[in-house]
């Protein structure tokens, strides 16, 4: 019997997170050399119709079965509640791989799953390569200063988390327009031993665009000089349909909220376009954004290290350049 691949799906509110569609695409890639099905595990609160709707959507993206774990404790911020039902499902399905997003949820869940099953775990994979005799996963080391390629040698299941925004997303299958309800299974309730419970979640994302999934980020550093400067960045981000990010120095100075911090101790982002304004390019900042597809740096110091990784550099005053860019974009 061909081993399936199990994707750990994730929702944010009622929407499936993009990294889930990336994980499905990675699973489909891993199945290019052999037959096998993609299954999804999806945990969510209560009996919600939203969970069923998300499950139907996953089927239209190529999942052959979706396994739902629902209880009042199942939330995107409570990975521990997902552990037991996921463990039972893995033991029942015997998948070759379990793939989750390298998100807060996945980072908490995947290593616990691997430890409980004595399985191998590759974290934060940015690329997957098919080899003649297996698969190789690329992942960053030393805060992005180097990359290594790893393969699994032990017995399946192999546990992998993938870095969001680094992989193609699965495309919806037109042939599965009407999702087959019988492919949605509700897993028996199995209470996980919770060592902590989430009492309250305070969301501090103001623009509504999740930084880790944003295609365009306009980020500001100490050079932005204050919250008024960040409003200029927000205007540019709004014109581009992007999100605003920040360096730690800008957050420390109180120019913006810590939820915007990008870097080694902040969020890791991989947008299509990253515009760094008044950011010097310290290694700890680069650790969070150097994998962005295109980087534009605006800095008045021509020697600023950020220019060494930028695809395009503008040497000048951000207070002149950012409003100019915004005005030009408004004319389009
Ligand atoms: P600065 O280094 O002060 O640079 C400001 C830049 O703005 C300068 O290059 C200047 O030329 C330019 N500038 C000034 N005025 C203008 C203007 N009008 N127009 C254009 N350019 C202008 N940092 C992070 O960002 N993220 C992290 O996650 C992070 N984690 C860290 C973890 C550890 C353990 C440590 C020790 C540090 C960490 N840091 C992190 C801090 C990091 O080392 C740097 O101090 C920080 O990134 C600097 O931020 P910055 O580039 O905004 O400020």
UniProtKB/TrEMBL annotation:
Record text on cofactor binding: Binds 1 FAD per dimer.
Pfam families noted in UniProt: ETF, ETF_alpha
Annotated Electron transfer flavoprotein alpha/beta-subunit N-terminal domain residues: 5-196
Keywords of the record: Electron transport, FAD, Flavoprotein, Transport
CDD domains, per database record: ETF_alpha
Needed cofactors: FAD
Chain residues that bind FAD: 222, 247-248, 261-265, 278-285, 299
GO biological process: fatty acid beta-oxidation using acyl-CoA dehydrogenase
GO MF annotation, one: flavin adenine dinucleotide binding
Matches recorded under InterPro entries: DHS-like_NAD/FAD-binding_dom, ETF_a/b_N, ETF_a/FixB, ETF_alpha_N, ETF_asu_C, ETF_asu_C_CS, Rossmann-like_a/b/a_fold
Entry similarity comment: Belongs to the ETF alpha-subunit/FixB family.
PANTHER family: ELECTRON TRANSFER FLAVOPROTEIN ALPHA (PTHR43153), ELECTRON TRANSFER FLAVOPROTEIN SUBUNIT ALPHA, MITOCHONDRIAL (PTHR43153:SF1)
Protein name, as recorded: Electron transfer flavoprotein subunit alpha
């Amino acid at each position: 019997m061909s081993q399936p691949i199990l994707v750990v799906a994730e929702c944010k509110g009622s929407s499936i997170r993009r990294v889930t569609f990336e994980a499905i695409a990675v699973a489909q890639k891993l199945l290019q050399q052999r037959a096998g099905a993609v299954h999804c595990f999806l945990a969510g609160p209560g009996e919600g119709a939203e969970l069923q709707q998300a499950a139907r959507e996953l089927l239209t993206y190529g999942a052959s079965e979706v396994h739902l774990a629902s209880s009042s404790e199942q939330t995107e911020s409570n990975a521990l509640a997902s552990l037991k039902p996921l463990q039972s499902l893995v033991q029942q399905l015997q998948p070759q791989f379990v793939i989750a997003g390298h998100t807060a949820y996945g980072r908490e869940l995947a290593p616990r799953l691997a430890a409980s099953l004595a399985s191998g775990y590759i974290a934060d994979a940015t690329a997957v390569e098919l080899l003649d005799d297996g698969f190789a996963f690329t992942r960053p080391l030393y805060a992005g200063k180097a990359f290594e390629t790893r393969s699994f040698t032990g017995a399946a299941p192999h546990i992998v988390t993938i870095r969001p925004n680094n992989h193609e997303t699965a495309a919806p299958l037109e042939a599965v327009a009407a999702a087959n309800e019988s492919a949605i299974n509700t897993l028996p309730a199995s209470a996980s031993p919770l060592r902590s419970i989430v009492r309250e979640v305070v969301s501090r994302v103001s623009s509504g665009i999740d930084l880790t999934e944003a295609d365009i980020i306009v980020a500001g550093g100490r050079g932005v000089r204050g919250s008024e400067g960040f409003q200029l960045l927000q205007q540019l981000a709004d014109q581009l349909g992007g999100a605003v990010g920040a360096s730690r120095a800008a957050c420390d100075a109180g120019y913006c909220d810590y939820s915007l911090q990008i870097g080694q101790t902040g969020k890791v982002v991989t947008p299509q376009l990253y515009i760094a304004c008044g950011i010097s390019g310290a290694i700890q900042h680069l650790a969070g954004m150097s994998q962005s597809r295109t980087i534009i740096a605006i800095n008045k110091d021509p020697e600023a290290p950020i220019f060494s990784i930028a695809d395009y550099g503008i040497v000048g005053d951000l207070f002149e350049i950012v409003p100019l860019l915004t005005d030009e974009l408004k004319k389009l």
